[in-house]
Amino acid sequence: MDKETDERLTAIETKLAYIEDFINKLQTVSVEHTQTLDILQRENKMISEKLHDLTDSLEDIPNRRPPHY
Length: 69
Description:
- By secondary structure, the protein is mainly α.
- The chain is built from one helix and no strands.
């Protein structure tokens, strides 16, 4: 191989190595974000259920003011 072809191949291999590293980092971030999203969705569901339970228990309170007050 001539020198120019060798330099071009080296440049391509270097760029490929950077791209592979970048993709690996993106994958790591994506996995972390997916885990965070799963946690937040579970917390949101729990809070929603708790809020629903609280609103249900408020309706059971006797001697509550009528809505026109």
